[in-house]
Amino acid sequence: xxxxxxxxxxxxxxxxxxxxxxxxxxxxxxxxxxxxxxxxxxxxxxxxxxxxxxxxxxxxxxxxxxxxxxxxxxxxxxxxxxxxxxxxxxxxxxxxxxxxxxxxxxxxxxxxxxxxxxxxxxxxxxxxxxxxxxxxxxxxxxxxxxxxxxxxxxxxxxxxxxxxxxxxxxxxxxxxxxxxxxxxxxxxxxxxxxxxxxxxxxxxxxxxxxxxxxxxxxxxxxxxxxxxxxxxxxxxxxxxxxxxxxxxxxxxxxxxxxxxxxxxxxxxxxxxxxxxxxxxxxxxxxxxxxxxxxxxxxxxxxxxxxxxxxxxxxxxxxxxxxxxxxxxxxxxxxxxxxxxxxxxxxxxxxxxxxxxxxxxxxxxxxxxxxxxxxxxxxxxxxxxxxxxx
Length: 389
Hints:
Blueprint: H1 11-18, H2 20-28, E1 32-41, E2 50-58, E3 64-71, E4 81-88, E5 99-103, E6 111-119, E7 124-131, E8 142-148, E9 159-160, H3 162-165, E10 171-172, E11 175-176, E12 178-179, E13 189-194, E14 201-207, E15 215-221, E16 236-243, E17 249-255, E18 263-269, E19 281-288, E20 295-299, E21 302-308, E22 315-322, E23 334-347, H4 354-357, E24 359-366, E25 374-381
Parallel strand pairs: 6-11
Antiparallel strand pairs: 1-25, 2-3, 3-4, 4-5, 6-7, 7-8, 8-9, 10-13, 12-13, 13-14, 14-15, 16-17, 17-18, 18-19, 20-21, 21-22, 22-23, 23-24, 24-25
């Protein structure tokens, strides 16, 4: 932004012309837990033992879609699963009954969910997930895709992307993929995830033709790569990409083995997801973390982040926000749930309307004794009941 020289006025007035959004938002934002609903309760339905790994997104037509792994027989990461979905046409006030849009049968090592990415240009919603990720009684792993072109009402049959991407254990997200809104590579779909425990790291897959074909992009590999890890080894894991207004992609990452700190790892791609240079990696000491999948999104010039804010335990699900794109975080924070809490995902509707500017939506694992007892949906009012600027 070009600085405007003033012949009169204070330095504060100059700053206002340079960064009006930052001053406005930082002085008025006061998030409030406006509404909360339980979307899934583990053990309450005959076909499902445990619901985990929640995702949430808005469709191009403005409906909310919530997804979760429906683990059929146990709470374990391996085993047979469904992908469960509920849909809301009124921004989360009411929800459809649960539907199972993918069923992996009786697999010993069933599906891993995954990332949801919305293609605004063609109006589709894409889910990327993995079969046989752990290679427990099966092999090789397969990267899979289903797509909805009618606002989440119906889904295509699963498509195996391994012919395009190669045979590897790649677990997307879990969270949201992105469609780039800025150059370079405007319109590109970017989904990032992680590898196996030995061959862990952050890996991105990319599509420049609305999900018809995919190719491998950036890789940030663990150290030592493809070898058994020890405590405190460098082991980037589950991750969430966010695009900045300069077109770069910032990826917020689970620090699996607590390398260097019990906090988040952050890395940036400046070439549309093709590379993740170590020069653009840092540790965010303010975002303490017990090694978990977290939620992140940008809205209204701010970066929002959710995780269980604790160094040791999955408790204290907290919303934080930054007016400096994550270089610093506001001292205030909103505690969404004090008790056991796990994975989370954030979305918002950027329609431009005054009402939609006020809210973000969070889905997260929540419990009284264990974090996998329920999956909860929270509507957050960003201005605490006050009118937004």
